[in-house]
Design a protein that fits this description.
Layout: E1 12-16, H1 21-34, E2 37-40, H2 51-64, E3 69-75, H3 82-91, E4 94-99, H4 119-128, E5 131-135, H5 149-164, E6 170-173, H6 178-186, E7 192-194, H7 198-202, H8 205-208, H9 227-237
Parallel strand pairs: 1-2, 2-3, 3-4, 4-5, 5-6, 6-7
Helix pairs in contact: 3-4, 6-9
GO molecular function, one term: metal ion binding
InterPro entries: Amidohydro-rel, DHOdimr, Dihydroorotase_CS, Metal_Hydrolase
Family: Belongs to the metallo-dependent hydrolases superfamily. DHOase family. Class II DHOase subfamily.
Length: 247
């Protein structure tokens, strides 16, 4: 209403890379200073693949920033089993698993090479209410052009996941294309949502190559896309028919 404001003093951040070691000690206090609750990504070296890994990582984070509310995730691999998912569901600290297609982004070499290899794990996640967070890009061998990898993921992977596991809660992380936005917004189920990054809201690929130079401070994965893609993301977060779905 006019003349009124809402101040979120300690918002949630549902996609945080705290890394490890000295980097963790540097960045964790920065996140904790701004956010009251954070969802911690698991792509360390080695990755966080078991509940015990998650507990140890959580302890290291809390040593750096005592008191922050942490939601831990597991890193899906071809060897993730239903038993590992049940352990996560019973742990009290792990609420989600992250799907990194092998080779698509930072520390993703141990990621999933085929959905078929994690079908039983996804079944267990659907049954037990563990959320699936996805890095929505196909691998370079499937789509060489990195500007098209998210679009192809939506067509060939995301559609398959949501149709095969209709009760599985899915979060499409850091959407960067109009196609991903439209798929999430138009999906009839309340079991699919998305996260958005500041850079994909603020910039498109013209900024990345401004003045015929590569501006590495704007390079990220997924890479910045077209102005139309950026405008679709802006429209969604500004209430353009979007429904806020949180799990």
């Amino acid at each position: 209403m006019e003349g009124q404001s809402l101040t979120i003093r300690k918002p949630d951040d549902f996609h945080v890379h705290l890394r490890d070691g000295n980097v963790l000690k540097t960045v964790a206090p920065l996140s904790a200073a701004q956010f009251g609750r954070i969802l911690v990504m698991p792509n360390l070296k080695p990755p966080v693949v078991t509940v015990e890994d998650a507990k140890q990582y959580r302890d290291r984070i809390l040593k750096a920033v005592p008191g922050v509310d942490l939601i831990m995730t597991l890193y899906l691999t071809d060897n993730t089993t239903p038993e590992m998912i049940r352990d996560a569901a019973n742990s009290g600290i792990v609420k989600a698993c992250k799907l990194y297609p092998a080779g698509v982004t930072t520390n993703s070499a141990s990621g999933v090479t085929s959905l078929d290899k994690i079908s039983k794990a996804l079944d267990a996640m659907e049954q037990l209410g563990i959320i699936l967070c996805v890095h929505g890009e196909v691998t370079p061998d499937v789509r060489e052009d990195m500007f098209d990898r998210e679009r192809e993921f939506v067509r060939s992977v995301l559609v398959r996941i949501t149709s095969t596991y209709p009760k599985l809660k899915v979060v499409v992380e850091h959407v960067s294309t109009k196609e991903a936005v439209e798929y999430v917004l138009s999906h009839p189920s309340d079991n699919i949502s998305a996260t958005v990054t500041p850079q994909h809201l603020c910039f498109d690929r013209s900024a990345l190559f401004k003045n015929s130079k590569l501006h590495m401070d704007l390079f990220c994965l997924p890479i910045l896309k077209t102005r139309d893609d950026r405008e679709a993301i802006r429209s969604a977060v500004n209430g353009g028919g979007a429904v806020c779905r949180s799990f």
